[in-house]
Amino acid sequence: MNYAKNHNELFVLVERTIFDFVDLMNPGHPANTKFVIQNALIYIEENYAQHLTLAKVAQHVYLSNSRFSTLFAEEMKESFSKYLTNKRIEKAKELMKNPYAKIYEISYAVGFQDARYFSAVFKKSTGLTPMEYLKKHL
């Protein structure tokens, strides 16, 4: 208000402020998109070991499944499922540093309910079975 010299300038300043605010509230606004994705990434980091689905994350960030999927892929340059799988595999690799950990325990710890499926996904992702990876990296 200190910048306005008269009522007309004050009106223009208030109008611009309102338009800027409305633009910021638009879910497609870049600042909002980054905030939504950051919120989703934090949620994924905290819950990757659970039965986590795109629908659960979308609900957490108050978006429809399709809108969240699109925003996530645009921002992260990969699909939600690919990101989650990569996150789980990276966490599994960290757990494999413990030479006493068992593969089925690791698979459960990173969100896979079936150790065989975990092994297949791990091999597809790394080119090695979990046992081959252990032998190579221990």
From TrEMBL:
<keyword id="KW-0238">DNA-binding</keyword>
<dbReference type="Pfam" id="PF12833">
    <property type="entry name" value="HTH_18"/>
</dbReference>
<protein>
    <submittedName>
        <fullName>Helix-turn-helix domain-containing protein</fullName>
    </submittedName>
</protein>
<dbReference type="InterPro" id="IPR020449">
    <property type="entry name" value="Tscrpt_reg_AraC-type_HTH"/>
</dbReference>
<dbReference type="InterPro" id="IPR009057">
    <property type="entry name" value="Homeodomain-like_sf"/>
</dbReference>
<keyword id="KW-0804">Transcription</keyword>
<dbReference type="InterPro" id="IPR018060">
    <property type="entry name" value="HTH_AraC"/>
</dbReference>
<dbReference type="GO" id="GO:0043565">
    <property type="term" value="F:sequence-specific DNA binding"/>
</dbReference>
<keyword id="KW-0805">Transcription regulation</keyword>
<feature type="domain" description="HTH araC/xylS-type">
    <location>
        <begin position="38"/>
        <end position="136"/>
    </location>
</feature>
<dbReference type="GO" id="GO:0003700">
    <property type="term" value="F:DNA-binding transcription factor activity"/>
</dbReference>
<dbReference type="InterPro" id="IPR018062">
    <property type="entry name" value="HTH_AraC-typ_CS"/>
</dbReference>
